[in-house]
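SAMPLE LOG
Freezer: B-3
Tube label: C17
Construct: single chain, 223 aa
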Amino acid sequence: MNNILLDSTKSYDKEGTFKLELDKDTTINIESDNVKLYLVTKNNIRVDFNIFKKATIYNITTENITINANIYNNAKLDFYLMTITDKKITNTINAYHESKDTTSNLICHGISYLKGDLKFSVNGYIKKGMIGSICNQSSRIINLDDGKSLIEPNLFIDEFDSVANHSAYTGPFDEKSLFYLETKGISRKEAFNLLLSGFMKLVDLPKEYENILDMLLNKVMRS
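STRUCTURE (predicted):
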């Protein structure tokens, strides 16, 4: 991953796959269809997105972060958050539907381990007049050791002609899943590590980006 420090604004006006490490507040404009953006965010920052076309954004973090996604022009945003922490942090994700027929899918997975205290505040806003808009949220946090978690899934919907859904889960892994893997000859530790990895790898990721996630998961597995 390239460490790119952005003073204010970065724009993508061509389709493609891009990778960024951000450690300061940044505004990102996505102005072309089929942009895939792989982020690693550090240092308790805020990232403001202006989405004008179809975009997929992946974000790995271990810190506090605030994401503001402003969605325009019939655009669609698929946003994936992957958080691993042993600290007390809050991730705030806001999706603002600023035009008709816009779509946001917010998928947030987190692991809270050791003394970690992880909070997801996930907020979707559809204003009156933004007809045909769709706002979906799916948030899950797995607690390990003495880790704690809280999910606040909020939908602020002022338009009847729209669709909004949310789901949320906090807690440990399902014992039935662990038991099933053990019946296949897999040790409990190996089964746990497999579930941990599968839980965080929401989709196929580029190798370089996956390696960053693996390094964080290895810290959890050794704890």
